[in-house]
Amino acid sequence: MIRKLSFILSLCAVLSCNKDPYIPNTDPVYVELGNGDATYGGGNDQQQPLGAIRYMTYNIHAAAPPALPGTTDLNAIADVIKQANPDIVFLQEVDKNTGRNGYSGDQAAELAAMTQMNFTFFSAIPYQRGFYGVAVLSKYPLKGIKKYLLPKELPEHEQRVLGVAMVDLPGVDSIAVAVTHLQHNSAAARVLQINKVAEILGAIRQPLLLGGDMNEKPDAADFFSVFDGAFTRTCMGVNCPNTFSAQVPSSIIDYLAFRPAQAFTISTHQVINERAASDHLPVLAELKFNR
């Protein structure tokens, strides 16, 4: 009995440390602050400000290579990130302690260590023995970390979240970053969710970078009337490369964007041709600061 009580108290202590202070105490409640207080890139106020910033969005499919079901390969995901050398990475379909595919670790934390970046993880749903959600990796310190629950069209829909953080860039600059992963099987739900995303992020005064798996194709007029009214995409038009599926790319559903439009100039936008690590292709863009 004493051993059982000790375990319960220890478990409660762990869970209380991990409760997200920004939303009610209901599932999902987990936000991991990770290395947000500057394991990497801290003490940079006297450094020269960045002239440009590189950022990536990548749905990592829980690091499960599609050709090797039942396995995980975080090294493959980390290699993609290291070769692209982004300052900020937005990750979707990230597992923490789930036990899925025989893996019980913390994917965001491990990828952060492999790439030498700070991180924060935002749970969307409890899954198996752990949590499943989205994450941010950053070369620079992350602060002001918040998670928002996005609306559902139907009660049975999967909970979706918006993760937001402030990035302390070299010099005196700071920017906001936001990551999300919208409902996959309902256009109406995606419109509800992007309206909420635009409302939340529209209240942020700092320049902002947004990335994620929007699960929406570019011809969705109702969705993009909201999206493009609030943000500037890093690629628009018929020449934008497809992002899904990685094995047979036939559509665009993964996006990078920013606001306000006058804060940045788009230097490059590319979809990285990495077909094995995930079922999505990573998207990378570089923006020049307009000072």
TrEMBL record:
GO biological process, one term: GPI anchor biosynthetic process
Cited InterPro entries: Endo/exonu/phosph_ase_sf (IPR036691), Endo/exonuclease/phosphatase (IPR005135), GPI-anchor_lipid_remodeler (IPR051916)
GO cellular component: membrane
Name of this protein: Endonuclease/exonuclease/phosphatase domain-containing protein
Molecular-function GO terms, alphabetical: catalytic activity
SUPFAM superfamilies the record matches: DNase I-like
Domain Endonuclease/exonuclease/phosphatase stretches: 56-280
Protein origin, superkingdom: Bacteria
Alphabetical list of Pfam families matching this protein: Exo_endo_phos
